[in-house]
């Protein structure tokens, strides 16, 4: 679990994203319930983002206006989404999650960059 | 663009701010439901608007995870009402992710943007297929 967390955080710190690797590992190999795996994934993501915060501050890459514009409404959405997740059957949640990742990954892979 | 300390204070127009807010809310909902995926949406959101927000496109990958940080903490807080994970595992995962995240941020400037995007996409597809088949 620690190795998977480190590798996932490495990718997340680079800004690439962890792609839900930790959730996949925790549900398939550790047998954790979907929501508990998701909670651990959120904590993991928070820690890796916090670690990259210092480096990005020093390198002056961050925009406060952008961060606040996204984060404040995002927290409201997250609270609503997490409450909804408690009412969904865990197996179904995992399947939908997998489909979402395939679709988003394919979109990223085949999307052409605008010039 | 004004600079205040280590944070840029570039003013953004109301329409752009509204778009960021709507996109941020959507990313939050996805993150809240699935415990993942909000970061992807945030990267897409910032990527669509990057010319209005940043000088360097690479700054998308710095601002996206930091924007997601409070969103992820909010999701975790709501999830914790129904879960009781092993605290030792949580601490180990958090420590590993702190190290990995710092290393990743340092390595970010060393890789080409296209390579980063392709790695991201490939990992997502593989992970998604595994989840669908499980």
Can you put this structure into words, describing what you see?
The complex is a heterodimer of chains A (115) and B (134). Chain A has 115 residues and is mostly helical. Chain A is built from five helices and no strands. In chain A, α1 packs across α3 (34-58) and α2 runs antiparallel to α3. The radius of gyration of chain A is 16 Å and the shape is globular. Chain B has 134 residues and is mainly α. Chain B has helices at 14-34, 38-53, 60-79, 87-107, 113-133; strands spanning 3-4, 7-8. Chain B is globular. The mean pLDDT of chain B is 80. Chains A and B meet through α1, α2, α3, α4 and α5 of A and β2, α1, α2, α3 and α4 of B.
The helix/strand class of chain B is: mainly alpha
Through-space gap between termini of chain B? 49 Å
**Pair with the most extensive interface?**
A-B, 97 and 103 residues
The share of residues in helices of chain A is over 70%
Major beta sheet summary of chain A: none
- The termini of chain A sit apart by 40 Å
The count of DSSP E runs of length 2 or more, i.e. the number of strands of chain A, is 0
Overall mean pLDDT of chain B: 80
Q: Specify the overall morphology of chain A.
A: globular
Strand order within the widest sheet of chain B? 1-2
Q: How many helices of chain A in DSSP terms?
A: 5
Give the SSE order of chain B as H and E letters.
EEHHHHH
Low-confidence stretches of chain A: none
Q: Tell me the β content of chain A.
A: under 5%
């Amino acid at each position: 679990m620690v190795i998977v967390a480190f590798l996932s955080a490495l990718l997340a710190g680079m800004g690439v994203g962890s792609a839900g690797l930790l959730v996949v590992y925790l549900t398939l190999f550790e047998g954790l319930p979907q929501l508990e795996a998701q909670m651990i994934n959120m904590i993991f993501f928070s820690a890796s983002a916090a670690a990259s915060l210092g480096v990005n501050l020093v390198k002056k890459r961050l925009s406060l206006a952008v961060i606040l514009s996204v984060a404040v409404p995002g927290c409201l959405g997250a609270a609503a989404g997490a409450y909804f997740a408690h009412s969904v059957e865990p197996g179904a949640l995992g399947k939908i999650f997998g489909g979402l990742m395939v679709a988003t990954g394919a979109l990223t892979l085949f999307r052409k960059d605008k010039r | 663009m004004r600079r205040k300390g280590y944070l840029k204070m570039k003013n953004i127009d109301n329409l752009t701010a509204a778009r960021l807010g709507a996109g941020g809310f959507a990313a939050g909902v996805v993150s809240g439901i699935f415990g993942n995926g909000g970061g992807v949406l945030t990267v897409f959101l910032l990527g669509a608007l990057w010319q209005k927000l940043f000088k360097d496109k690479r700054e998308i990958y710095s601002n996206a995870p930091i924007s997601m940080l409070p969103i992820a903490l909010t999701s975790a807080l709501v999830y914790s009402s129904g879960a009781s994970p092993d605290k030792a595992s949580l601490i180990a995962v958090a420590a590993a992710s702190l190290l990995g995240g710092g290393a990743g941020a340092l390595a970010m400037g060393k890789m080409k943007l296209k390579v980063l995007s392709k790695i991201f996409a490939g990992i997502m597809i593989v992970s998604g297929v595994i989840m669908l088949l499980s």
